[in-house]
Amino acid sequence: MSRDPVQSLSLNCFCLFVLLFSLKMPENIYRNTNCQNIDNDVVTGYFEQDGYKIHYEKVGHGDCVVFMAPGGCGNARADLGPIFDGFDRNKFTLVGWDSPGFGLSRPFRDYKRHEENFYQYDAETAVNLMQYLGYDSFSMMGWSEGSRTALMAAILFPAKIDKVVVWASLAMMTEKFKDSWLRLINTSAWSEKRMKKYLKLYGNRETIDKVWYRQTETFITKSNLTSDRLNQIQCPVFVLNGSKDVMVPVEFFNQLVANIPDVESHLFPDGGHDIHFTHSEKFNGKVQRFLLN
């Protein structure tokens, strides 16, 4: 039985449409390889600036937008996992990064370009990343070395930074503590758990030693935030610390509280350097309250 010419034409057009649509699929997939949806609330991707391919992770869909900076040479997920997992995703949108040259961001940091303005560059780049993602104003969080990035952003961009949260923050390095921090350059004292975490990021022990040595030296000798600069911060700041933190003793906590104009503070009596891990429920509750109020 012969087929109706009109039906044949319609069928051929439909087949052609399906073929063309299927041919376009790989192109669309290729364009989106820079940004991966892990689930509806978790997105990872890369932001490119000055030759760096900077890794970030975005979690949540809430109105309170927060940028988060991990510790030295760290990775957002490894360093800040309890916050990503513990904050209310309906109320918060969290963006964590691996700062240029560290964690999953590559190539490695070019110290010749950024040594003298290290944390200023990170603060500027963080703001650029957030603007790239569509956020013109937001709050900042920073742990340990990442706290310098958060505080510097508040100093440089007062109109963009709503609030700041820092913990285990060594913003002002004093001569008294330089020697003890220089001893941390040697990675042989690291725990097996910590070394495994960094091996996942950097591949081998030799690379870890080089990256950690160079960055710790810069952290100790460069880019101190003096009391004059801290006094310039206009937004509310929440400073937290553990009373048993041997890396960042309470003295540094007291310095920040004394020099930031609009400050709230909390000291965990039995906390160490990683209070967001060891006291995650209490930490997350206090920080969420501060950011939402």
From TrEMBL:
Alphabetical keyword list: Signal
Signal sequence bounds: 1-26
Cross-referenced SUPFAM superfamilies: alpha/beta-Hydrolases
Residue stretches spanning the membrane: none
InterPro entries assigned: AB_hydrolase_1, AB_hydrolase_fold
Single annotated GO MF: serine hydrolase activity
AB hydrolase-1 domain residues: 66-181
Name of protein: AB hydrolase-1 domain-containing protein
Organism placement in taxonomy: Eukaryota, Metazoa, Ecdysozoa, Arthropoda, Chelicerata
